Structures are given as C-alpha cells and as structure tokens.
Amino acid sequence: MPLQNLADYFNDRFGQEHRSSFRPFLLENEVISTLFGQIKISSLFLPIRLAQKPDEIIGHAAKLKVSTHDVQYLYSDEIENLLNNRPHADNNFESIIDFDRLSRTTHMLNYLPLAHLQGSLFLEVDPRHILGIKKDHGAYFEDVINHCGLETNNIVITMSVSSPYAKHYPALIAGLSNYRIRGYKIALKFDYVAQEEQSFDLITQLSPNYVSLSARSFDQLHDDTQPDKLRHLNAQVEIAGGQSILQQIDQHSAALLAEITGFTLVQGAYYEIS
C-alpha cells in the first residue's frame, strides 16, 4: 500500500480513537513525520552489525529524529519535559502511551522501504508505557504491523533499565512477557555496566533476546576492571540465551573492547566511516 494511503489510514484511526479531526501523520518527500504537541518526530535507523563481521547488518535500531515546528532540534531531556508537562502525564501515563504509539507507528511506516532486507527493527518502549497498559501488551501495535503487511517476529521491543524502576520489575517482566507471547523479541538496554544483583536477576528471569550497553558511558567511568565486568555480563547474557550489543561505538578503542570482551553485535558511527 502506498505511504500516503497508510498515512491516511492511521490519521483516520487516530481521529476515531481520540474523537478529533487532528491528523498527526504527514508525508513529506516520501518520509513520514508526525506531530505531537509542540514537536515533530521522524525516524533515523542505525544499522546493527555482527561484531565479527561488521559488514553484515542484522537489523536497525530506530531512533527519534525530533524538532519543533521551526526545525529547532531538541535533546532527549527536553522531549521528556514536554511529555511531563502535558495533561494527565503525571497520573495515568496517557501522554506517554500516546507518544509511544505515535513514534512507533512513525518508525514502522518509515521502515517499510528497508523491510525487504528481512532484518530486525529495534523499537524502544518507555517503561511507563508498559506500566500504563494493564493487559494485552503489543496488541495495538500488532494491528499496526499487520496493516503494514509485516510480522511481529521482526520487531524487537527494547526497554531501558534504570534503578528508579527496580520496584516495578515484576510488572515490567509481565508486560514484556505479553509482548513475547505475541511473537515480539525482547531487548533490555543498560546505560552503564550494570553489576547490581537486581540487574542480573532481571536478565535471568526475562531471558531477553538481546541486552545492549552504550560505549559512550565507558569514557566517564575510568574503571580498570571494566573488561572483566563486560565479560561477566556477556557470559550472563549468553547463559540466558541472548545476544549482547555494544552501541554508540565512535572510536576504534571501543570497537576493540567489544571484540575482546565477547559482544555479539555492534552499532556506531565508527563502522559507518571505516
């Protein structure tokens, strides 16, 4: 189905769900952009590669390309503030759920020209979205996927792990398990080398398909034991039946660290210019 027809379909669906005439999905130069309050979102796809064979791409991580209407680019913390300032965001997650659904639909529509590659599409889901949906996680987006003629087993639901959500781990595990039942793959994303027992327990209990870390956090730690910690983490991921990803690799040193510590997959600017 042509992109314009899909944009019209999802605009009609949005209008029916919200009883509104607002049409958030825009087609501009064969790219879908979506309006959400003060911001305009589109997609950026980052190739995920085999660590031992970087020329082989196994999928793409979708990232938000965000601007205000006058194309003033925003940072992630500014997006967070915009979400938190919207009505209802503090008491029932309504704003987060709307934003997650709009952004993932945007990514799916923009990914269609790459879908023939048969790789996985990694889509981030806010933990508050998972907590805000009480049952049938993934059902709404499964309908989006089916309408685009794709399948859930090519979609990787990625959730960032952070200590403020530790008390919610049982509910998050249940929500992610609901996604898995529908055929989605699951990824956990850590911003640093997580050594807390709770983090390893989360990996053990959930057995995610992927666990990812950001290489950029390493520069801030200056930890001589870091390689050993990474090997231990990668061993835990392998035991749980998953694959590890080192993302945001900008320099050769980080690429070498990924190789010697046993990461399965890599992503970053270093491989785009090598």
Task: Describe what is shown at a glance.
The protein is built from twelve helices and ten strands.
Report on this structure.
The protein has helices spanning 3-18, 76-84, 89-92, 94-111, 127-132, 139-147, 169-181, 197-206, 218-221, 226-239, 252-261, 269-273; strands spanning 25-28, 31-36, 39-50, 57-68, 120-124, 155-160, 185-190, 210-214, 243-247, 265-266. With 274 residues, the protein is α/β, with parallel strands linked by helices. It has an 8-stranded mixed barrel with strand order 3-4-5-6-7-8-9-10. It is built from 12 helices and 10 strands. It is globular, with a radius of gyration of 19 Å. Helix 4 runs parallel beside helix 6.
**Biggest sheet descriptor:** 8 strands, mixed, barrel
Q: What order do the helices and strands follow?
A: HEEEEHHHEHHEHEHEHHEHEH
Fraction in beta strands: 15-25%
Structure classification: alpha/beta
Work out the radius of gyration.
Answer: 19 Å
Helix amount, in percent? 40-55%
Give the spatial strand order of the biggest sheet.
3-4-5-6-7-8-9-10
Tell me the overall shape: globular
Tally of helical segments: 12
What structural keywords apply?
8-stranded mixed barrel; 10 strands; 274 residues; 12 helices; globular; alpha/beta
Summarize the topology.
Elements: H1 3-18, E1 25-28, E2 31-36, E3 39-50, E4 57-68, H2 76-84, H3 89-92, H4 94-111, E5 120-124, H5 127-132, H6 139-147, E6 155-160, H7 169-181, E7 185-190, H8 197-206, E8 210-214, H9 218-221, H10 226-239, E9 243-247, H11 252-261, E10 265-266, H12 269-273
Parallel strand pairs: 4-5, 5-6, 6-7, 7-8, 8-9, 9-10
Antiparallel strand pairs: 1-2, 2-3, 3-4, 3-10
